[in-house]
Amino acid sequence: MHKTLLALSFALFAGSALAQGTLVFGMGGDPVSLDSGTITDGNSALAQILTYDSLVKFKKGTSDVAPGLALRWTSNANATQWTFTLRQGVKFQDGTPFNADAVVFNVNRWWDPNARAGAKEQTKTFTSYQFIFGAFKGDKDSLLKEVRKDGPYKVTFVLNRPFNPLPEALATPFFGIASPTAVTKGGAKYGTPASLPVGTGPFRMRSWTTGDRIVYSTNTDHWGKKASYDQLILRFIKDPSARLNELRAGGIDFTSDLNPDQLGAVRGDKNLTAVIVPSFNVGMISMNVTNKYLANPKVRQAISMAINKKEIVRAFWGSLGVTDASFLPPALKWANSRTVPADYKFDPAAAKKLLAEAGYPNGFSLDFWYMPVSRPYFPTPKPIAEAVAADLGAIGIKMNIKTEDWAKYLEDRNKAPGFDMYMIGWTGPYASPYNFYGSYYGESASLDSGYNNKRLDDLMAAAAAAKTRADSAKAYAEIHQITYDANVRLPIVHSQPLGAAKNYVKGWVPGPSLLTPFEDITIKDKK
After folding, report:
1. Whole-model pTM?
2. CA 256, 321, 478 angle in degrees (round to 5)?
3. What is the pLDDT of residues 430-448, one digit of tens each?
4. CB proximity list for 246: less than 8 A, separation 6 or greater
5. Which residues, other chains included, contact 478 with Cβ-Cβ below 8 Å and sequence gap of 6+?
6. Which of 99, 321, 332, 346 is such that its CA lies 20 to 30 A from the CA of 217?
7. Peptide bond into 381 cis (omega under 30)
């Protein structure tokens, strides 16, 4: 008896010893929201995947889909009906059960403005749902027709049109499944520091201090892999140089979105390991065609010809960035048009001539907004904005450089009259051209630009319905040509994001979206 108790005590002690220690990540800024379906920014996405599980997830370090809360899924012949079979025995972090009712509750509140805990009831805008799925219930462009429970652990999505990338879309970090009980209880404050998010994910959020940090504990009841440490902290450190200094000093264990020119410093530190992520993003300048100057296609073309993209990329990204004439990253070049030039032509003299032809020989002034946070595609937004402004100033366009708080920045760009021109970017959440073009072109994705082209909507639908890459490539090639000619979203860079970690951090393998399972990381030799 004593031996049995001793063995049991030892086993319990050993198990707790495995889950000791704290992992600290340096993040480039605060999350905007941690209510699934409401956000589109990377800081929020990273914090979300720690708390929530999604129906489908990505295999580590890739954009290949794997089971998440759904064990398997099937579609009908034309991809208009998808059925997902769910895991059983999973509980939310508040102890309530995960099942088909929970999935239907979440999807309905994202899609249907009038649903329980939906947009109207909680005064929220489910922007990321709109970005990925096009429109809400009642809108003619809504992809979703119905989501229904077909059993305690079976959910069916019925679509208005074929959509082959549905599993990939559901694996994006925007669609974590939240506890209906927590969402209802939290109301409009759910997903904020005043009402912390509750999912089924690998970590439980314990506290969220605005401007400082989020603290998690390991979810020892998680259905999947459990972290080998007991606490995870996300520290918000906006400045990349400050993040690197904190890493060297031991204030954080690893970080991402460092400045490209910090690569040498990282490699020169024997205590650090550099992590270079393959490019799967685009950093762009977006123009608002409701502005009286930018409404003129010749003005937009002049702007595209006046910016020395190659020099800007060389100066700010060095070997970790490329520039071309495609909205898509190099990994998706199969979807590019062969008739579009390799890059935009840099010709300030021709640009000035175009301005004169447009009726503005003496130029004009525009407001130009830069991001207040470091992102993988724009690690140092302000000096990049200043370089762009200098190029445009050379042809007579005076740029008034502005910024504001990140959450307000993301909100105000979509409020009339919007920003004249602004910096933004996109890291593809899954490996399809659809999520790049669909997130920034089309009626539902053009609040900030005012640019709508019905042909683009038709082509996007054709690409999503295509059963072969060759068929989808035809549609995407035409999309590439139209968007290149429009000069509304001007691609500046496809970057290779730079991360760094202490040598004792093992198992951090960022995928194309930079979002990787932190529960896989080990810190065995951390002092």
Report:
1. 0.81
2. 115
3. 778 998 998 899 877 889 9
4. 26, 235, 237, 252, 255
5. 337, 455, 459
6. 99
7. no
